[in-house]
Amino acid sequence: MISGSTGSVGHALVQTARAAGASVIALVSSDEKASQAREAGPHFVINWQHGNVVEDVMALTEGKEADEAFDPVGGHLFSLLLASLRRMGQLISIGFTGGKEVSVNLLDIIGREKIVKGYALHSDTPEQDLNS
User: Fold this and answer.
1) Can you tell me the distance from the alpha carbon of 122 to that of 6, in angstroms, rounded to the nearest whole number?
2) Could you say which of 33, 39, 41, 119 is the most buried, measured as most Cβ atoms within 10 Å of its Cβ?
3) Residue 132 lies in a domain
4) For the chain, how many structural domains are there in total?
5) DSSP conformational letter for 73
6) Would you call 120 exposed, middle or buried from its count of C-beta atoms within 10 A (0-12, 13-18, 19+)?
């Protein structure tokens, strides 16, 4: 799953995930953005303003839930992405255009052993770049 799929980071993530062979679910906030997101080539697009993201992801994954989520948006979407992950799924937080404060269900994280990571591109050192 990739939130903010019409932004520059989200758009690039959709394309990169597709190139890596992933089945991609793009999350967007409007029908107009859904059309734009489809240009990057995700397998599915969910307008999180309509319906229930967790239920939609369950339906699209045939009850398996998502393996990973990339979140350049933060805010309310962070919690929706986290709730849509499978047991031991991983959420990578890479931005907060939608807000820096989030609400999480610790029982969901602990009980289902989910992984939450933060990533800041500008924090990479030259050594990390060479080891990538």
Assistant:
1) 22
2) 33
3) no
4) 1
5) S
6) exposed
Q: Contact 91/78 with Cβ under 8 angstroms?
A: yes
For residues 102-120, average pLDDT:
95
Asked whether 103 and 75 are in contact (CB, 8 A), the reply is: no
pLDDT for 50-106, tens place per residue?
Answer: 989 999 999 999 999 999 999 999 999 999 999 999 999 999 999 998 989 999 999
Do residues 45 and 28 touch, judged by C-beta distance below 8 A?
yes
Helix, strand, coil percentages for the chain (3-state, nearest 5): 40, 25, 40
Q: 130 lies in a domain?
A: no
Domain that holds residue 90: 8-121
Average pLDDT over residues 32-49: 95
Tell me, yes or no, whether 128 lies in a domain.
no
The pTM for the full model equals: 0.88
CATH of the domain at 76: 3.40.50.720
